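Write out the 3D structure for:
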Amino acid sequence: MQGLVQLFLLTPLAFLLYAIGLRILLEGVVALIRVAENTTLMVEELRKEG
């Protein structure tokens, strides 16, 4: 009985939490890459002006 509870309830819940955490981590990485890209573009524009 206890094995069935773990199989059908706890395992999918653990996978869901893992997937949510992984998505949060990857969204953070994407945000950092976009910030770096925008910063590079801003620096290039400032160098053109100056």
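The radius of gyration is 22 Å.
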